[in-house]
Each structure stands twice: as structure tokens, then as C-alpha cells.
Specification:
GO terms for molecular function: 8-oxo-7,8-dihydroguanine DNA N-glycosylase activity; class I DNA-(apurinic or apyrimidinic site) endonuclease activity; damaged DNA binding; zinc ion binding. It comes from Schumannella luteola. This protein is α+β, with helices and mostly antiparallel strands. The chain is built from 9 helices and 10 strands. It has a 4-stranded antiparallel sheet, with no helix packed on it. A 4-stranded antiparallel sheet has the order 2-3-4-8, with helices on one face. It is globular and about 60 Å long.
């Protein structure tokens, strides 16, 4: 799943490619992915992409009528900006196309969920792999109309997000496990499973540690959060969408590296399996050398 650094890079890349260009059409091929009906997708046609923003893990393409352009007076949204909001979920992605695309002959069998075409034929496809579909597309007048954006917590990379604010939030979470708190989008926007693993490894902290912790540990965790995300943002800066997945994987120290040696201490990276996800950690760096209980694995071994 793309998280804060990758979505930020996608927004930068799309803004560079699309800024000032006019949308010819937006087609949705996987209809369950479209979560809104008013304004209609057709209302995007003829609008210019003025900027591409990010809200947590959400991409936000802002589209307006060109200055002096003809507006449809019958369309109540004609005079105001529209927002094409994309949440790529676990298996969604953006594929940029430089040329006019070939028609999709079998939409039900194609990974393409939606297609945006600009006035010169370039544009992008929104794709989703696998059978579990959770990609979400919204066309709205304001980002806050999207429920997932309306309930987002603060962005941990915002200029006004400091250690004091971080400590105050953790204090309200009490005995909740820090791993779950970090990836809770209503608490911190943009951190997911992968970067929460990396942040905790950098902080040398157990994923099961309580969120409410002494000030010295808050300081260490906050520094780990900012350095981990800053490093990822710097690595992703300037990369095209096609390069971001491999860059994310190559930058991980423990996430997705079960069974490999920890690059810090050499111990074997372990994992804990849940019903719908896993996380990875280093016992020596994070849990005093003790493996964490893995209930799924324990049941398999009985």
C-alpha cells in the first residue's frame, strides 16, 4: 500500500506532468470503485488540472475551468473547483501513459479501474491488482466530503506538528499498542504498516509497547518518525510512479524482510501474522532479544 512518502511523490509527479493541462475525459471501468455520483465524472471534462495535493494517503487532483472558458450554466458545480480524490488502498496504483491509449476491450478482466485522458492523449490509468477490491475514487466539490479525509488525524510531516503535539496525542491513547496507534489514520495521517515497522525499528521500540510512555521515549520515537519519513521522502523525490514501488522496498530495513538479517545488529528479522496483515521487527533491536507471540503461528504448530 502506498503511504505518505509514495503518495507525496505521486502527487509531485502528477502535478509536474499534468499542471495546466485540460482533461478530455475520465472513464471509470470498475464501477464499484466510484464512491460518488454528484458531481458526475463527466463534469471533469474540459477542466484544467491546477494542482495535485495529498491528504494522508489520499491523492487530490484539483480541476477548474480555464480562465475565460465556457461554463455549463446547468451544472451547479461549473463555477467551482472539483476534486478527483483517489485512495489506492492495498493494491491500487497509477500508471502514466504518454500516448493515446488503446481501448479496453474486456473491462471485467482488466486491472484498469479508471482512465484519465488529457487533451494531448497522455494521462494515467488507475489500476488495482488481486481479487480483494478496495480502491476508492471520489469526485467532490471539497476534500472534506470524503469521509476518510474528514476523519484524518494531523499530518506528521506538517510544519506545525512538533514533539509537544506528538506527546499530547500519545498520552491520550493510554495502553493502546504503539504499532496500532502509529498506523491509525484518525490519529496520524499517512503512516501505514510499512513505515510504522520502520519507525519502531529506528526507535528500537517494541510494536507492543504502550502508546503512553515517558518523555525520553517520546523524544526518541518522534525523532525516529521524522527521520524515517524524511529519508523516504528524499529517496522518492523526483521519481516517476513506475519507480516508487521498488524504491520503497529497497529502503526498508525490517518491513517485508522476514528471515533476513537485521542491517543494524545481524539478528534474524521476525514477523507477527494477523488475519489480514503482518508486521516485521528485530528481536535484538526492539524486544530485548525475545520473540513476540505470534498467535497464528502458534496455532499452526499445535
Amino acid at each position: 500500500m502506498p503511504e505518505l512518502p509514495e503518495v507525496h511523490a505521486l502527487a509531485t509527479d502528477l502535478g509536474r506532468r499534468m499542471g495546466g493541462r485540460t482533461v478530455e475525459r475520465m472513464s471509470v471501468l470498475a464501477f464499484p470503485a466510484l464512491k460518488t455520483f454528484d458531481p458526475p465524472v463527466e463534469a471533469l471534462s474540459g477542466r484544467q488540472v491546477t494542482r495535485v495535493d495529498r491528504h494522508g494517503k489520499f491523492l487530490d487532483l484539483v480541476l477548474e475551468h480555464p480562465a475565460g472558458g465556457t461554463e455549463d450554466k446547468a451544472d451547479s458545480s461549473a463555477g467551482a473547483p472539483l476534486h478527483l480524490i483517489l485512495h489506492l488502498a492495498r493494491a491500487g496504483w497509477i500508471r502514466w501513459r504518454a500516448d493515446v491509449p488503446k481501448p479496453v476491450t474486456k473491462p471485467g478482466r482488466s486491472p484498469i479501474a479508471a482512465r484519465l485522458v488529457l487533451d494531448d492523449g497522455s494521462g494515467f490509468d488507475v489500476t488495482e491488482a488481486g481479487t480483494k477490491k478496495s480502491l476508492a475514487i471520489h469526485v467532490v466539490r471539497s476534500p472534506e466530503e470524503v469521509p476518510g479525509i474528514a476523519r484524518l488525524g494531523p499530518d506528521p510531516m506538517a510544519d506545525d506538528f512538533d514533539e509537544e503535539r506528538f506527546a499530547a496525542i500519545l498520552a491520550t491513547r493510554g495502553r493502546e499498542q504503539i504499532k496500532g496507534v502509529l498506523r491509525n489514520q484518525s490519529v496520524f495521517a499517512g503512516i501505514g504498516n510499512a513505515y510504522s515497522d520502520e519507525i519502531l525499528h529506528t526507535a528500537r521500540m517494541s510494536p507492543f509497547a504502550p502508546a503512553s510512555m515517558p518523555a525520553e521515549k517520546v523524544q526518541v520515537l518522534f525523532a525516529a518518525l521524522r527521520s524515517t519519513l524524511n529519508d523516504a521522502l528524499e529517496r522518492a523525490d523526483g521519481l516517476a510512479a513506475s519507480e516508487l514501488k521498488s524504491e520503497k522496498r529497497s529502503g526498508m530495513q525490517v518491513h517485508g524482510r522476514t528471515g533476513e538479517p537485521c542491517p543494524v545488529c545481524g539478528d534474524t528479522v521476525r514477523q507477527v501474522i494477523y488475519s489480514d496483515s503482518t508486521f516485521q521487527y528485530c528481536p535484538t533491536c526492539q524486544t530485548g532479544g525475545k520473540p513476540l507471540a505470534d498467535r497464528v503461528l502458534s496455532r499452526l504448530l499445535k
